[in-house]
Automatic annotation (TrEMBL), chains A, B:
Protein name: N-carbamoyl-L-amino-acid hydrolase
Species for this entry: Cytobacillus oceanisediminis
Cofactor-binding details, from the entry: Binds 2 Zn(2+) ions per subunit.
NCBIfam families: hydantase
Superkingdom classification of source: Bacteria
CDD domains assigned: M20_bAS (cd03884)
Length: 416, 416
């Protein structure tokens, strides 16, 4: 099993070695992503699955039941993605489709005969790094894609989503036909690396996820006054960077203190900053700060946003600058299916692995699928919690554990 | 006089209107700078000066004395530059060469006959915005140009100083031949917009400058740990931006408090910041902060640097990050000639203008000239102290005042 996982891990990453100092780069709807999806298709066919590409470019590999009359029954599905951020790792996404395929192979070798069909889905364009829009393939499949809003969103080279999609020989106008009826699937699960260390920190071996924390994202524009760094006395400045610094501290400290007084954690990060003019001899006149806030408790996120707005108003008067807070994104968090979560947890525990029940701080394809089908998410550990990074790593042991848990879960899910 | 100033102000800015929302862009050793220097040459020739371009591209316009035998006497010189930063204003530099030329015109019209020659010098490449190196032309003239260190310094397009200079049909290898002997000049003065509001704030009309505060510049590299903003608990982070924020506040507050307890002011600015990866979903792993420190009191600058280093070491332990402080520049401040300062002050006061004696927080060509010749610097006010900005503005009244002060000063300086 480990040999198979290792070999196909490299194949799905279109590489001969997982040691890649520069990481991987398979952006959504790029030739590089398409190449990896083609590898997925070959492996799926190799283990005897029938594969089709849908109208959004998702690849759906299906194990048809041998019992006549149940071909059209709702399928038990598992899936993830193979695209990456720039300089990303080889496990985020890939681990999910790899373990899904490996689980099928294992079930076939064991002579398992499914009653319901089983599917492994490789979604297109999960990462938001190219267009600032995530999970395009799974949005299309679950009917959540807002085609008109997205068509003209450009990447950093000015290529729009529509152009990128059509570059992959997919019709943008027909992309929403990828939507599947509720009756197509009976459930959906995704396996993903945790991208954190809470499972390990809890002394557990895998995570059974209850909910996906979707973000509130703020863009805060601070306008002060540019001036010469040498000729503007300290008492006569409206330095936008000096004005915003206490806010960065405040965001970090407030998230920590809200976490310690709440039932579920909240994280908040000032993650991007742009200075104008960002020149050694000029006092920063304008700062744009990007803030990412996540918790599965939507009220807690809104409380955090309220406290940030309050602090901005206090800092504006204190430093004589203006601070304008724009809410870019305010997505309610997604509850996953409790039944599916318990089945996944049970499957793992039956196999002797210790479970930790937690929420996901990151978004995944499963959050779209959960809008239409009972859905679950399984975490396997990754080294130091590192992801979106060339040193992202999950052990073959943990990939094998993930495969076993999926196989065990599917065995019961596809038996009725 | 005002009409002449207004007309030639526009000509030197190669524009038909000073209202330019996008500002001016005449980078050092660019075609745009060269075009403005050519305008300087024509105006100088129009008013009867003999102009030569030296080996560094500086233009030297000379009013030869009519008394035989004094042609080679040391000249009384005045000058500044015509290059700008990107999106700069039309007065920084231009005001100095314009008022210099206007003063000569005035003296000629009054029938003044100089005993010593008079020169108006238009220096090449004063701004540091293209190569990060300032005052290249005046460095060359005063023998301070370190040719070997500079040759390969690139601009943001990768063009080196050597390439840019040679693109202007100047031999890089011969550029140091622009150096002039001490006997070439008897003194040098520069008129410049203040780029601050201390003259106005003091209720005065012009500034007589005692010294030029040269900067200490630091580049501080903070290394924390990247991580997913959604999956890394608050207590488990090494956020480089959170770690550096208290430093930004500290720099601003410490400069203010050192100023209030010292005889001369100090200014310190965290003016540039670069985040890696600067992506909404990733905790900032690396921050690079640029700090500019200026005072005419070099000990005070060094004390500020010491306090910053001390604070960095405290913050490193507190936030579990590394902070590496590199001193990019540590230039001792330049004392200007007290005699020349008094003559300028006297000239202005004789004409009925109120003087304010101050130091310059910004560097100017005069700081290089002061290394070799008795030198002085005259400030005229500029609106709201704004410079390096499209809205930079000095009134025609103040340009006329500057012209009169230079003319009055030159009349006595060139009479012996």
């Amino acid at each position: 099993m480990k040999d198979w996982l290792e070999k196909h891990l490299k194949e799905l990453n279109v590489t001969t070695s997982m040691e890649r100092p520069e990481g991987f780069c398979r952006l959504g709807y790029s030739e590089e992503e398409w190449q990896a999806i083609e590898v997925f298709v070959s492996i799926a066919e190799e283990i005897g699955l029938k594969v089709r590409r849908d109208e959004a470019g998702n690849a759906i590999a299906r194990w048809e039941t041998e019992e006549k009359g149940t071909e059209d029954s709702p399928a038990a599905a598992v899936g993830s993605h193979v695209d990456t951020v720039k300089g990303g790792g080889g496990y985020d996404g890939v681990a999910g489709v790899l373990c899904g395929l490996a689980a099928i192979k294992k079930l076939k070798e064991e002579g398992f005969v499914p009653v319901s069909p089983i599917e492994v889905i490789c979604f297109a364009s999960e990462e938001s790094s190219r267009f600032g829009v995530s999970t395009i393939g799974s949005k299309a499949m679950s009917g959540l894609l807002n085609k008109d809003d997205l068509a003209d969103v450009p990447d950093e080279d000015g290529i729009t989503i529509r152009q990128a999609v059509e570059g992959m020989r997919i019709s943008w106008d027909a992309i929403d036909q990828a939507e599947r009826p509720e009756t197509a699937l009976k459930s959906f699960i995704e396996l993903h690396i945790e991208q954190g260390t809470r499972v390990e920190d809890a002394g557990a071996e895998f995570g059974a996820v209850t909910a996906v924390a979707c973000p509130i994202r703020l863009k805060i524009m601070i306008k002060g006054q540019m001036g010469h760094t040498g000729t503007t006395p300290m008492g006569n400045r409206k330095d936008a960077l000096v004005a915003v610094s206490p806010l960065i501290t405040f965001i970090s400290e407030t998230a920590a203190s809200l976490t310690s007084s709440s039932e579920v954690p909240i994280v908040a990060t000032a993650s991007t900053i742009e200075l104008k003019p960002n020149v050694m001899t000029v006092i920063p006149g304008i700062v744009e700060l990007g803030v990412d806030i996540r918790s599965v408790d939507d009220d807690l996120k809104r409380e955090m946003e309220r406290l940030i707005r309050q602090k901005c108003s206090q800092l504006s008067s204190e430093f004589g600058v203006t601070m304008e807070v724009n809410t870019l994104v305010d997505n309610p968090s997604i509850q996953l299916d409790d039944g599916v979560r318990k089945k996944l947890q049970h499957a793992g525990e039956t196999l002797g692995y210790k479970a930790f029940v937690l929420e996901s701080g990151a978004g995944h394809d499963v959050m779209n699928m959960a809008a239409k089908w009972p859905s679950g998410l399984l975490f396997i550990p990754c080294k130091n919690g590192l992801s979106h990074h060339p040193e992202e790593f999950a052990s073959l042991e943990d990939l094998e554990m993930g495969t076993e848990i999926i196989a065990h879960y599917l065995k019961s899910e596809a038996s009725i």
